[in-house]
Input
Amino acid sequence: MKPISILGALAACLALSTFSYAAQGSQSLPPGFLTIEGNGSSSYPFNATADHKWQWHYDSSTFAATGPVLISQVYVRSTSLSANMSFDFPALEVVMASSPTDYQVLGHDPVFDNNLNPDATVVRVMAPWGGNNVPPLTWISLEMDQPFLYDPSLGHDFVLQLRKCGNNVTWGESIDGQSGMSGTVGGNRYGDLADCNATSQTFNNNEFVPVIRIDWALPGGPQMQVGTLVAGQSGSISITGVDSGGRVFLRSSLAGAGPIPTAFGDLELSPPVIRAAVVNADPSGEYVFSQTVPFGLFGRTLYFHTLAEVQGALTLSNPSEATVQ
Output
């Protein structure tokens, strides 16, 4: 299909109004840290040279959603005390699952697989992961390949499992986290510090867990995936789950993640909003925006949100963001 510019001319924002039902959104786990830093930090796993395997285990009650959601992206970040950092890992895998066990130390099973329900999904296949000159306290996407359906109302906790096999350049900085008294944080981490293929944990904390961000949308809505954006190279944004031939409105911002209330829900962008031309999905309900990323955007964070036609109605996708490398 014909590529279209991701970064069109600046234009007026969507008309403001109120809307009572959010079909998409973002939140941190544990909650409350989207814009606020946690009180803890750790060099594991991204500032360690050894292979690592981790399960970050979050209580189901930490989710804002009260029913099923499609998690479309997950992010980590360094602390505010970090310097701008570059990193290069040759092999990182991410698995998401609901859990039959509890996040607290007495409930979590030392055997990794015993904490994963049958819905366990490799949402990021083992592949290189890196970044250049990323500012401190910036959300860094783990670049999911596919969304994960999670229903917190079932009472099963959420597990994010990471396998880091080898490294070229580590973060050189610590990952943001949150700690507290037993039962107060809503998350713990469990890992092995030497083997990315370990079957059981050799390390754990009691009420310390990395702070992550998830982007989500309701099942059946449009899904947006933002690829890695590298200055001077071609970047892409894919939109799926749209009506065959349905309209797609891509919006972006360099100013922040909003929100701006609109007639369709909260647009997770800050003004001024950049508007790409309206396009139509292909017969399978997909459209891919593609463009060479300007060199002048190196180090800048771009925020994206899409409005698309689903079952004849305009519906917001999940929001997303990416820092240009």
Residues 10-23+221-323 form a domain with the S-adenosyl-L-methionine-dependent methyltransferases fold (CATH 2.20.130.20). The chain is about 0% helix and 45% strand.
